[in-house]
Amino acid sequence: MNAIAGIETPRSPVSTRVLQVTQLRVELRDQVDVLSGVSFSLDAGEIVGLVGESGSGKTTLATALLAHARRDARIVSGRVEVAGQALLELQGEALRQARGSLIGYVAQDPATALNPALRIGGLLRETLAVHQVRLNRAAQQQRIVETLRDVGLPDDPEFLRRFPHQLSGGQQQRVMLALAFVLRPRLIVLDEPTTALDVTTQAHILATLRRLCKSLGVAAVYVSHDLAVIKDLVDRVMVMYAGRLVEIASREALFSRPAHPYTRGLLAAIPDVAQRRDLLPIPGHAPAPGQRPGGCAFAPRCSRRRAECSAAEPTLRELRAQQQVACVEPYVQGVQLTPQVPLLAIDDVAPRPALLEINGLNLAYDRQVLFDVSLRLLPGECLALVGESGSGKTSLARAVAGLGENAEGELLYAGQPLKLAARQRAAGLRHQIQYIFQNPYRALNPRQSVYQTLSAPLQHFFGIKGAPARERVEAVLKRVSLPASVADLYPHSLSGGERQRVAIARALICEPKLLICDEITSALDVSVQASILALLRQLQAQGLTLLFVTHDLGVVRAIADRVLVLKLGRVVEQGRVDEVLDRPQAAYTQTLLENSPTLA
Amino acid sequence: MTDVSSARWQRWLAEPQTRKGALITLLLVALALFGPWLAPHAPTDMLGQVYGAPSAAAPLGYDFLGHDVLSRLLSGGLSVLWMSVAAAAIALLVGSALGLLAGFSRRRLDQLITWLADVSLAFPDLILVLLIVSMLGRAPWLIVLTVAIAFTPGVIRLARGSAVAVAGQEFVEAAQMMGYSRRRILLREILPNILTPLLVHFGNMLTWGVGMLSGLSFLGYGVAPPTADWGLMINENQAGLLVQPWAVLAPAVLIGVFAYGTNILAEGIGRSSSRIGDKQP
């Protein structure tokens, strides 16, 4: 991503203010605020990153910049001025005109944001026609062609006739960019536009975005949950916590001298592809709207908490030039990276029998997704399966778990042949291989309490029920750092991280030897991810073998001992993590590494 | 399950429409159940003039044979109610079992069950019921069975559709991977998650059932005279509609009110479930 850092703001003698937000406040019913006291400004061509975890109010702020609040929320006070126009005072037709011509919006998922019934050309022409009636037909066509070139899409008539579903995810997101830029807005708001994309595509989109903003002088607010992603894109960063801006700083200041304890916590929780270091989770969890403690909302989770923290809510104040922070005792020194942790000792010199061996695995649905994949998994190690979407990494993991239909090939578990369908495996073997799913919201039955979910396998595999089952359930909950009282709760009252811990507990209670983790942290916030990864390392230290599927090379660096890189169903490279990530041999691995966001 | 099901009750009853519907339904059920004891006369006693006008002795007058309309009204609810409840319950049980199986197996069994359901859906309900009843006779259990047969394909479609959505979720895959039996997966993992739409549908079937049974009686294919039955009463007394309207209006109004009650009850349950969301985010 170093390529985009090279695009710099053209030095203009007079900076022009494009966005001015003053004391913005958004409330839910019963005057519960989701956003309060938000003030900041943006100049033309400036890109600001808005960073926070889920529930922090960052999306609420992003949509409030368009004078929009979601159904149960209301913008109650404050001012939003875009290019001198007070947006919150506009209504109806005037507001609609302002939204399109002054502000562009790019949503998270282009697949659902683009009308599937309209062709690309139609989408662009419609957008122009609604907002800029003055353009004649030739000028309209000219503008469309220019914009498509700007965002790096083909501009031939053949492309304009395509439907959104005929484009790749990256192309769809470029179309979204084109739709936002075609009206030549002064400000563009982007809500996690690259979350659904592969790293290579993400890097290209980010580079395009920075180039466009700088060359056209468009200001941008880029919402993200990941500081690493925005590092090379933005000029400034705003960190949001519990509906408040807690730190605003230039990129240099924020990444070298983060002042707010929460900012530091976020940075310490992000796995970095460049070097292996301890990931430090932030203890506790963020308060829900309406349950905010008095004073500083972060105080209960803060290691520098003092008595006055809970007395009054700190407001943003200037710490030094280019850096504002809302904290009574901000950090002033530069950040020190936590020392490296040694790898778990794996001597690959002495040949050991593999726990799992795959020989020549092929898998085809309507097309072939795995081609002759072979791998060896040693007992006690963590092997990462890495690849972009469509690489077949999840299919491979599911085949090992016995969920892959149509798989062909040889599986050996502890030297013995293993059936490809879970149903045909002996119960004594089945409990030894456990699978944890990507989405913790769908992995637990909403109609069963945690106790029911956890005790069912106990009875199924070991015939344990009653009081001994209760004891085991409480013990396994303790092992995944959940209180025993969680047993009587239903999934809907648990957070995403807690649900994922329950899912891990369900696997652990089966006394597995091999744990297959399918992108299990990708739906979680970075601080929660850090705690789940710490838990997995702990389990590995207790003797578990892990097969960890991920698209995130930073996570690979943080947790894995060995890595296997998949591309379009074939293994392109494998080896020890430090060797592969520091000295990648395959061109594909090199591209992945170059495009992976890093804090270094 | 106690926790979830009591929470479910509370959520349903929080919806004013549900409370209203439940109240109306309960009142009508009580009327049908206890009516026979409250009736001043036996429903088959001929006491007054044919189509005699309402009087102090007979507040709703007399019908085409001189029966007391009030007594027949109080005695005539039970048959239509138990028959519609029985028909809806049979359809619910059979339909959800077949629908669950189809939705989870997703193969040849699914195709077969779906095909059967689609074919029988092609026949209009009432025509189907009339056809069977006119061929096989009009014993109450036979009528219940035919109405249930007419209702079952709808339940199958609903149960299958909901089961397919749930069966694709990871917690069902987790259960398959553990090697749980198919029975256990169907009953413990999937069924509880599709119960709400099925119960709403059950309420709707009650409504349709009352209408269909009354219609059958009206057409002369339902309960045999001289049994007191709301549908039959409308049929019997239509000739005297202008002379003694109460003999037709009173049972018609009660059928309408019961249908209204079960309908808004079902709608209320459906509404509270869709708003608060039985589904996961």
Short description:
The complex is a heterodimer of chains A (600) and B (281). Chain A has 600 residues and is α/β, with parallel strands linked by helices.
Structure notes:
The complex is a heterodimer of chains A (600) and B (281). In chain A, 33% of the residues lie in helices and 22% in strands. By secondary structure, chain A is α/β, with parallel strands linked by helices. Chain A folds into 2 domains: 2-7 and 16-325, Rossmann fold, CATH 3.40.50; 356-595, Rossmann fold, CATH 3.40.50.300. In chain A, strands 6-7-8-3-9-10-12-11 form an 8-stranded mixed sheet, sandwiched between helices. Chain A has a 6-stranded mixed sheet with strand order 18-19-20-15-21-22, sandwiched between helices. In chain A, strand 21 and strand 22 (570-576) form a beta hairpin. In chain A, helix 6 crosses helix 8, helix 8 (169-181) packs parallel to helix 9 and helix 9 packs across helix 21. Mean pLDDT of chain A is 87; it is low at 9-13. By secondary structure, chain B is mainly α. Chain B has 11 helices and no strands. Chain B has helices spanning 2-14, 16-38, 69-75, 77-105, 108-121, 125-136, 140-167, 170-178, 182-219, 230-236, 246-276. In chain B, helix 9 (182-219) packs antiparallel against helix 11 (246-276). The longest helix of chain B is centred in the last third of the chain and has 38 residues, at 182-219. The chains are: A alpha/beta (600), B mainly alpha (281). Chains A and B meet through helix 15 of A and helix 8 and helix 9 of B.
